[in-house]
UniProtKB/TrEMBL annotation:
Residues 34-80 form the HTH marR-type domain. Signal peptide: none annotated. This is MarR family transcriptional regulator. Belongs to the ROK (NagC/XylR) family. It comes from the Bacteria. Gene3D superfamilies: Winged helix-like DNA-binding domain superfamily/Winged helix DNA-binding domain. It comes from Actinokineospora soli.
Amino acid sequence: MWGCAAAVGHDRGLGWQEGLRVSGSARLLRSINDAAVLRHLMERGPLTRVAIGELTGLAKPTTSQIVRRLAADGLVRVTGHTSGRPGPNAEIYAVEPGAGFAAAVSVRAGALVAAVCDLTGTVRGSAEVVGLGEPVGDVVEAVKAAARGGKVAVSKLGAVQVAVPGAYDPRRTRCGWWTCPGGTGRGWRRRWASACAPRSRWTTT
């Protein structure tokens, strides 16, 4: 679930995904704090600002500022209020599921399966292709079908992860010990992206 959120985060400008460079110590600290709050909300479910502050160790003003910023960015939302305690009821925050989406594709020798999930890791839609023909076209159509099944626009996919049955060499953009029809996989990520979700981050494992 957190892996999906990290993948989606690449498209939202957060500094908790591998490979993103954040310039300036203030901006870096802000990204780290935002990521910490999101991670606790992802792993523990809806929380009040007090609970978030206790889990992260952040001061109350800092916690409030982060929550307001994440809410303004559409990443978290108020889902309810506490009750039965003295004083005003506290707002309860949770991750906004529709804030981002990612797709995952598993390519095997005779078939492939694609799934689209939201920011919470919930699978919104899936599709399967049995009897591979042309791997590039099959992957693209499976991702589109999974997105349609989940009522998610392909343009909203922040990341697409494709797992292939071979040893992928990112430097040469090809696969060794490839067991699927269609060649070595050279240039496939570029072709996938140009045919489907060009603004998404396509990665291969």
